[in-house]
Amino acid sequence: MDEIDEVADAVDALTAALESDDDVAHAEVGGYLRDRSTVILTGEGVRSSHAFLTTGVWCRVLADGASAYRHVTDPDAATLDTTAETAARSAIQLAQERPESYDPETVHRGTHPGWADEPVSAVRPDAKADRLVTVTENAVADRDLGRLRLEYADEHVVSMLSTTAGTLLTGTVDRASADLSVAADGATVRRHRGSTDGSTLESVDSLLADAMADVDRLAAAAPETPEGGRLSIVLGPRAAGQLVALLSRAFEADVVLADQSPVERGDRIAPRLLSVEDGVRAGSWAARPFDAEGRPTTPVRLVEDGVVRNYLHSVSSAATLGGAVAGTVIPSIGFESAPRIHARHLDVDPGERSLSELSAGASVYVDRFRAPWQAEGLLRKLRSGWAPPGAHYVSQLAEKIPETERAAGRGRASLPIAEGYLLEGDEPAGRLEGATYEFAFDDLRTLDGAGVRRETVTGIAEKHKSQLPYAVTAPALRLTGRIRP
């Protein structure tokens, strides 16, 4: 029997076991086959190259109004029975005060073939390594680099989803990414590029060329420490994308239910030039045809002309807060951890200004941030720690925290500047070192310009131990904010 047939049988068996459990109100059961390969290169050549095939089954169970998640990689009959029992028991033991809800009436059936012309697994791992070595050697040539590390990873994933309400979906995703770090003369550039259309391997040469040009430009600028205080800041498309990815967390319904979002629907958070939509671009790194609840993925207008219009929902949060379900319960990469409410591909509308026009009169230009540090104590704990895979339990946790502590720092984050410059006129001057942008949500009200040209930034976000792909296409933005040396 083929591996995928074994997975299908395991999904059927686990679905049947959960259907027969009187304590289970609803369950989603998924199965997958992942054909993966990774290649890691340094300036010395190939450090490692691996290929492996994995299978697994997961379930998200609603019992006694609470959700629980289980994932197994050895789906024999005994393991599946135990998984069904422990998932239901774990949900019941949460003693959740506000019940999760589900929709037993809407049933989806379909198959999605993916966006790649051919599976990424069709190219042999040694051929991938050879190509990466060749393009890296061409890009580096005789350059004196302090560090070079390139990690390429891809996977051909065949997945299926069954629910106790009757949904049955199958799909294919060919996800590939290149994570590059280059250092020279004290300057470090890091780039991530991902897709689900099979194009990443062929685009590594352009990724390397762009990164080499960026590290040369950064290294040529003398390091400087900026004066602190509120300054006019130009965020390049990458940094603007990172900021938009951060602020989109305020629109996640579980964050709203945890009383950690600084905004409500209908609030004006920025001038009319800011509009943000969460959509699903075919072939995007974060694209999916359907989500972990079996819902088709459709666009959601989060911000329109500076006004908050919608949240990102699960079925349960939409029923509580009122809103549309658009397929935003995203499976964790690898499926080991639970799916979470999260943005997919955020699109920020372009403006009308050139980069030089935005830079004129500004004090600081930022090309890339390091990972942000969120000031909110509760939200930071919820995002980095374990939490059940439902939307409502976080509100129960939040109520145990005093309101003053919940409110402290809400809507704030520290964004260390990884690549940035002081500006003289509209030209880059000294390279920023050790500076941090202390972001506050009210800074969005100072937006006074957006660029014509947009770029896409991709990466992996962590939420409650789940690894979630994200992508943002954004223009450069100019605003006023506090820079801390």
Short description:
The chain has 485 residues and is an alpha+beta fold. It is built from eleven helices and 22 strands.
Describe the structure in your own words.
Helix content is 24%, strand content 38%. With 485 residues, the chain is of the alpha+beta class. Strands 1, 2, 3, 4, 5, 6 and 7 form a seven-stranded mixed sheet that branches. Helix 3 runs parallel beside helix 4.
Descriptive terms for the model:
485 residues; globular; 22 strands; alpha+beta; 11 helices; single chain
Sketch the major β-sheet.
Answer: 7 strands, mixed
What is the first-to-last residue Cα distance? 62 Å
Strand content: 35-45%
- Uncertain segments are none
Radius of gyration: 23 Å
Q: What number of structural domains do the residues give?
A: 2
Mean pLDDT: 92
Class derived from helix and strand content: alpha+beta
- Share of helix among residues? 10-25%
User: How many H/I helical runs?
Assistant: 11
Coarse shape: globular
β-strand number: 22
Write the layout of secondary structure elements.
Elements: H1 3-19, E1 24-42, E2 45-63, E3 66-72, H2 77-93, E4 109-112, H3 125-140, E5 147-163, E6 168-184, E7 187-195, H4 204-220, E8 223-224, E9 229-235, H5 237-247, H6 253-257, E10 276-279, E11 300-304, E12 307-308, H7 315-321, E13 329-330, E14 340-341, E15 345-348, H8 355-359, E16 364-369, E17 373-374, H9 377-384, H10 393-398, H11 403-407, E18 412-424, E19 427-432, E20 436-440, E21 449-463, E22 466-484
Parallel strand pairs: 4-6, 8-19, 9-16, 15-22
Antiparallel strand pairs: 1-2, 1-5, 2-3, 5-6, 6-7, 9-22, 10-11, 10-15, 11-12, 13-14, 16-18, 17-18, 18-19, 18-20, 20-22, 21-22
Helix pairs in contact: 1-2, 3-4
